[in-house]
Protein: Puromycin-sensitive aminopeptidase-like protein
Organism: Trypanosoma theileri
Amino acid sequence: MLEHQKDSKQYQQEKQGGGEEEEGKNESKFFHLPSHFLPRRYDLFFSPRPVQGLFIGSTVVTIEVASPLPQPTRHITLHALNLSIDSEDVKIKTGIHNSSGDIEGSGDSVSSTVEEEEEEEEEEEEDDEGVLHCVGIRSSEENETITIEFDSELPNVKGTTFTLHFVHFGGIIQPSSTATGLFYSYTQDNNFLSTHLEPTDARRLYPCFDEPSFRAVFQLTVEFDSRYSIIAGTLPVHEEHLELDEVAYAATFFDYASPESTPDRFWGFSNSNSLNSSTPGPSINSRMLKGEGGMGSIRMGSEMNGMSYPHGSHSLYLFPRSQTCEPYSTATTTAAAAAGGGGGGECLDEEPRVCSLRRVMFDVTPCLSTYHIGFHTGKFHILEKSASRWPLLCRVVFPLDVHVSQGWYALDLLTKAVDFFDDYYDHPLPLSKLDLVSVPSAGMLGASLWGLIPLHQSFLLVGESTPVERRQRIARAVGHGVSLQWLGGWAAAGRWEAAWLADGVARHVEFAFVNALFPGWMAWDEFLAQLLDDALALDTQAEKTHPVNYVSPNPRRIRDTFDSISCGKGAAIIRMLEGLLGRNHMQQAIQMLLQRCGGSIFDEKIFLNCLCSVHHSPGQDLDEVATAVMQYAERSGHPLLYIEQRNGVCRVTQYETPDLREGVIHTYAQLQPQRTEKIDAMDLMAPRRLRSFKWNIDNLLKRTNYTIPVSIMEVKHGSTSFAHTYIIRNSQESITCTPDQLIFFNYRGTSVLRCDYDTATWRRIFEIAPFLSSEDRMIITITLFRFRNIHIGQDENSNNNNNNNNNNDDDINSINNSSEKTGDNIDRCLLLLEWLLFISKTTFMNSSQWKYITHNLEQVSYMVRDYHCWSVFSHFVCTLYAPLLHRGAVSFAATENAVSFESQTNLSRETVLHILQLLAICRSPLIQDEAQQLVAWALAALGVVTTSSRAGGFNVDNDTDAAGVSIAMQSLTERGDSNTWCTLASLLLTLLGHPTHTVPLPEVENMNMNSDLDMEIDAEVLLRVSQLDKTQETRWINMIAPAVFALDRSSTLSLQLIILQYFTTLNAPIAKAMLRNKRLMIRLFEPNGLIGWGKRLSNIRSLLIVYGATFCSDAVLLGLMKACVVGDAPMEGIVSPTSEINTSSTTTPTAISQKQFTADNRESVVGCSRSVVNAIAKMEVNCLWMEYCCDHYYNFLSTKLPSSGLNSMGLFPFSSATEGSIDESIGVSI
């Protein structure tokens, strides 16, 4: 078993032993609250004070004795984090027996005013019967709990109900970047607040039983500035307006940060009445909540939370008002303050002002977990509409400063999603309304509360220019949030280890919803390319893989556990169940789960029982299928099926999928015959390796044994093909078929696995590809790209002695002794190119497939560019996209109609730009004229004299236009347009504030440019540049810089280094452009080459190394990078960066560095981050892969492509190209 192939129990045990050194102290076994006390109801009251960065709260928890203890106790334990609670503000009221179970009426309201509560306390002092007083509070930092001790024993009779009162407590409003607990959600106005409590942050907001199995009903009351709205998961049932003078309002706050309050009062773990925290903060004394001591006796410190306050109690401004920043900064702007309706931070006037407050009590929720409640404050547009199938009130809530029209798209999606899932789940919900709430905070993408779905503003609002990819993502997010109202809210996982089920179902059905609403988008192709592929790629990496149902024992790391593996692979498991069992079977099982667990909790066993309880025809192995699929969640990694089909025998063997970053490259290098002793796989000093070897998978991969249900389709000419489920129970099995029959495994990409075939079978699959589904073609494309480091060598047909659970020796020998050689003589590294050539001649490709191909083909192009096959490979890339160019689908002027978009017939604008980026790398002459016109059009906006005839003015704030212009600039400089380069370099220097007359002109005089062009900038350009605001200036810099850094010439090197000194960090487009400039890269990594750059050079080097892991296979540059990392001096033979470089060199890895990054010593490199060390190792793999493939690529493509086409395309073996990544280059980085 490989190290990363572990089940959840093994993984859990290892993680409990400690992880990283800084995390190890909190990695202990799970702490679960004792279950003899169960919460039945929470009455919550909150009064946020955003100016001070704090909130005041009060809670009454109704608790039932579920199981009596052997001996009565005086202690009760709850979760609490970063809360200030004083022992005298905690008490228990007993004598309540709720025999009827009417939980909704059993709680004490906390919505009374502070004055009323004080009167009640005075009355209680006279009659203390049935009241238990707190005598101490003990906290646990590790478990994030408090244990409260009372002066008498707690009730211990089963069914007895009592109430736990937290009369007053205080907490901190978190910054927007954290998006945990109660946090600021809009930097333009601090009175915009939101809550995010999942998974373990309800304890930041109120003391509670913060585990998903402790469910209760909730009633929420919030008090806030009356000028702002308050939104919660249920509708308001009572609202009152309070008019308080500022002195009275301040009396409930004043002692919160007094200098007399020691930090231990709030943060210290030694005091009995203090709570735990992991970060520093203000000291808070909760006795101040009652206003004791009077206003005149309180003095504030000069600083709290880094925010300055005037000295003296009467100079503290407590009046609710709009703010333009969080309380961790003192910056304000008049415009923003005026927009918010309040002042900008001035002190109190002599006359106290009237404070108008809104106190809203919301309706009682059904039985929920603690993280399902929350609220939002702000000034909002509220659009509403009722769904048609189920007339539920649906609303979209977003800030007033956004145009109202941008919310209609989300509202339409919301009503359709409610109807879709009401039909899918067929289970009524006790919902009174459902809100989509826009949260501008960058720290929050999405969550799902009861009746409330908060989404990041950019993933909710839609304007006319919103691209189709963003619209697709919004539709998925809405579908995901609505689905969680049923499975995840109304019925929820009882343990975090089972939470993947609710999220997996939601992520699966969100694609089903989008596919039903927009069938032309072909959503399942996106599922395969985005969720499944990414999850399976991470699942092969030993440092990242884990079972789907694994959850970190550290409560602060539970959220991090829900990564691409838990979410993506979890959704793929649900899709696998539906694909193998059938949609109706899966739907009935989920409906049965809701019937059993609605208003309660479930786990994997209950879910599996529902899957097996659905009626199905006798003789079907559906129970075995369901059980086998559910076991995927308990193991890390996934199987690889290797299928060989010859002479009517199909042999299927299971292997452990290797780390796809390295594949079989290590083993290939070790099998070379040049040395008698065993050489290290990554030894780049080894002699030149053989360019071919025999493929024997048993020598390269390790066997495994899963029970694998997989959908297969038997294809035979002249007959109809149907898919059916086949269960693989052994490590190796054989299926008998006719010689002309082809068995295609994993039909529609249903199962969570990878499939590989022998070369002849792959080529037969290519032939039937037009008759396969779109999902099948996507899976073929994904597999061939992902197996790039596995597909090397030729198939070996010699006899193999296998003794691994095989009872079909005759069949195996028949395969091994086959004389059928059709297609077997091609090297496996050419399968990808053969597939791409095949699909370029077809019409069945869609936008999602082109997007995936372009993204991955760009990475291959970066690595090929330093080898002698670059000229023919770049021609191949241009040929691949030529049909799209000729029919106008790919053009700088191409537009996108997001409303009528069809993936089969249209390309998204984002995909078009990425294709243009790749064509710019390959110097396609077909885009040059259009690129020149586009650049001239853009430069005219800065006053540069051009001949542009394009209508309209260029707007740098338009992401699409800016990205297109940046690509066009790079396309021109890649082909050596020196005039354009000098113009762009001059503009970039001006934007950076560098005087152009100081530029060393001799460095650029050798360039072939017009004699009248120099580096001077005329007055009109200077004037327009000076009129740009900071954001526009940054966007222009990011737009121009990649084209300036990409030109690889010795005459431009000095000027490029001058420009680079203005950069402290690099975004992705700039970093990748620099990777294309070999001279610049070598100069940057040359030992002692750049004196005086200091930390800036170290940061730039680290970023370039990390990007190099994906885009670099240059052995010379790799040697210099390794020398920087391990401290080696480069060995003899490295070309000086100041001399001329033969950019068409066929250099292969030679003597570079005496220290090799082997698996044994990578972690021992001191002073480097893990990402840098791993990037070096990945570049070594890139070099070895390209060393093997370059000859095969050259010979294959030279044969397939007409040689006359090379000259006609104007392609020559240069060493520079162009940058681009779908996620990182489309849109200028700010």
